[in-house]
Amino acid sequence: MKFSNKLSLAILITGIIVLILSSITISKLSYSSNIKAQLIYTKSIADKVSADIDQLLHEKVKTALTLANTPIIKKSLETSNFFYDNLSDEKRKESIKIFNDKWKSTKDPADEFILKFTDNSVSHFLKNQQTILKDEYGEIFLTNKFGALVASTSRLSTLAHGHKYWWTGAYNNGEGAVFFDDRGYDDSVDGYVLGIVVPIRKGPELVGILKCNLNILGSISKLISGAEDKLIGKFKLIRSGGAVVFEEGVEPLSTQVHDSIFNKLKSKNVKSFIFNDSGEKYLVGFSQIKLTKAEKGYGFGGTFESIDHKKGNKGESWYVICYRQMRVALSPITESIKSFILIGTAIIVILVLVSQLFGRKIAKPLALLDKATEKIGKGDFEYRIDMGQNDEFGNLAHSFNNMASTLQQSTTSIDLLRESEGRYRNIFENIQDVYYEASMDGTILEVSPSIENVSEYKKKEVIGKSLYDFYTDPKEREELLNAILVSEKVANFEITLTDKDGSPHPVELNTTLQRDQKGNPIKLIGSMRDISKRKQLEARLRHSRKMEAIGTLAGGIAHEFNNILTTVIGNTELAIADVPASNPARECLEEIQTASLRAKDVVSQLLGFARKTVFQLMPVRINPIVSETLKLIRASIPTTIEIRQDLSCQSDTVLADTTQIKQVLMNLCANANNAMQEEGGVLDVNLENTTLDETSAAGYEDLGPGNYLKMTVRDTGHGIDPKIIDRIFDPYFTTTSLAEGTGMGLAVVHGIVKHHNGAITVESEPGKGTVFEVLFPLVEAEAEQEAGEPEALPAGNEKILFVDDEPSLVKMAKRMLEMQGYRVEAKGNPVEALEMVRSEPDRFDLVITDMTMPKMTGDKLSKEILGIRPDMPILLCSGYSDRIDADRAAALGIRKYIEKPLDMSEFVVTIRKVLDDEAKVKIQQ
């Protein structure tokens, strides 16, 4: 056999054997490890979705608790419980039974008895919540502590609920617990319902139960459906009994999971496994949703109690199942093996062809080639092969001679290479991001010096150690490895490393898996970037959005309360005017007036927290305000607490509302008092001037460079736990009992400071006290002086049209204005009021209208009236509205915008001024 044939045959046989053995070895080694990794990854996907749903349920509970603890609901419960508390147990049960029987027998939903519960102030408030959170709620209803209905958004089947499983679960023998009523499909809302039942307390006593039926699957479907990435897989939400609660494209509770999956679920030992369905293999992982375990403080379940209750829960918890096609999950390794075989085959074919074509011609000149190689090997780069032949060897000889010439010039090339290496080294040593190389077992092979800027470790302390030793969470390491094995490259992968001092440090990884020529993974190459500052900014943004959402709710509540306060304050003023000082009732009325004004301040605080109120910002000096407030505080805190003050700052004039500044200081000092009440201590209050440059201003939220007044409140109390310090400005967050505080104090402070364009920070260490620092921008304007004594209320005889949908407010205002001599026409319907103006445009001298009314808002009514009579003076009143403020009202042509609750003295003065101004304009014309 010729040499060329022998060479080709040897290459062919050897190549095929090597290719087959390599493919088999790679497949066996990679398959089992990838299956294990993919099973772990599948379980982690299920855990992530489970955690997201658990978080969603927690948020729904928070919303329900916030709704349940509003003043209007607690007031209604106080009234209802008072009625039943005065009855004996036997009469109470009999009374509830009589009401319940009457409720069931009354078929007309418009019956007065039914409307008593479905058309009262509380039911209207609950219906408003349904409107605010559109498509979120089905039925919402409230019972007292005896299970009797207080208010509902719709007609229920019964009035008595104290015997029902969800009610007793939330009542929890008087201790109270959050209960999830997994009702399943419910005809009352024509959909799937999850009832959230929350207890309502007044101090330690449980006073009622609120149930919100949620259209929950809409929210959950956003978390577990619509996945387009086949590597992620699909999801099911199931009950522990096997019924499918949610699967995309399938009717809820119409199917059961496969028996083999259900058996694995019941075993509670297996969390991920391989499932074979009609020849198709799946990777399956499942995770129980934490809140559905009915742990302490929570209950979860349901029964078939109601006649319209279909496919209800039998006391089962919820699980998330993730199932992925194995062939899709393992497709990267399959494709890698196919590519390896294809490339190997192509190489073998090329080698065989080359050996066949050139084998014959290279045999003879081998001796010459061997000699030339020997010469070159000894460093004789001037040796050349004879160039006389004009065949393949001639070409080879020519190439060989070129190689010798190239090697002869290698000294110059080495110098250039060293120069290039120097440039690379300069970049490597000075790069800001951290460059690293690591073996497949995680051993760090190389790292740039910038590692010290990120973790405080020096380069020599890191080389040779395992990369995984620095991961704060082992799960992140597994997720990263799985992601690299699946795609061989990850970008912007966020993990948390542990610094040299033990603190966590977030970084962003960009990593590539490097393979050898056989396709075997050999090492990881990548970079990491410090993202701690970015994370801080993201946390601030999330907190800001949360505060904005809660502020919207607070503004809505304040609007309703302002209407009530206007009626109370106005009628009290009218009554005081009619009752002589000698009458014992006069003192009671004055107490009501004082309490109402305090309630007005509370509403102002609530709007201050919501940052929706109109503060009277003017140049004021802070030093006298702080001094005066500290005198008041001294009388209200124990003598075991020493108050120290240093108010010796050069400049203390800021744009502020005096009442709100007092509120900030009083709330911060109250917080310090709570921290030192047991053992006493020192309360320090200081004022000082400070200047922020661009660098220092970046450390505060929404502050720029400039001059500021810094108010510091320091105590020596027990300090704040680092785990909760980021939450202390959240509304309703408190570490004290409900009897000692509402949790709104620091939230109100935060809202006031932000509205004054300032910033507040807190530093604390358990056992060493707390320091609050508040910064206000300084101004150069002179502080305004206190106003003098008010003049007597002016009177008049003009004709006024008063429009408001609150009958009690209309009645009170009409009487007040008529006492001042005005002729008043009052209307509760804005459409009827518009028709009066349209029929007689010159009948009225002034129109006073509320903003929020049914059928037509105040701004719309004003616009229509001005279209009929452009010179009509209009006063617009509002408890709170996102649609209107003083500037917008003026732009519409409205003469004056007034915020509720109305101070009737100021109200009368404003009316007189508007009418007098109108008279002056007419005289000039």
Write a concise synopsis of the structure shown.
This protein is an alpha+beta fold and 925 residues long.
Which properties best describe this structure?
Beta-Lactamase; 6 domains; elongated; 7-stranded mixed sheet; 925 residues; alpha+beta; 29 strands; 5-stranded antiparallel sheet
Describe the structure.
The chain is α+β, with helices and mostly antiparallel strands. The protein has six domains: 57-218, PAS domain (Beta-Lactamase), CATH 3.30.450; 382-430, no CATH class; 431-530, PAS domain (Beta-Lactamase), CATH 3.30.450.20; 537-610; 618-777, Histidine kinase-like ATPase, C-terminal domain (Heat Shock Protein 90); 799-924, Response regulator (Rossmann fold, 3-Layer(aba) Sandwich), CATH 3.40.50. It has 27 helices and 29 strands. The strands form six sheets. Strands 1, 2, 3, 4, 5, 10 and 11 form a seven-stranded mixed sheet that branches. It has a five-stranded antiparallel sheet with strand order 7-6-12-9-8. The chain has a five-stranded antiparallel sheet with strand order 14-13-17-16-15, sandwiched between helices. Helix 17 runs antiparallel to helix 18 (584-610). The protein is elongated, with a radius of gyration of 40 Å.
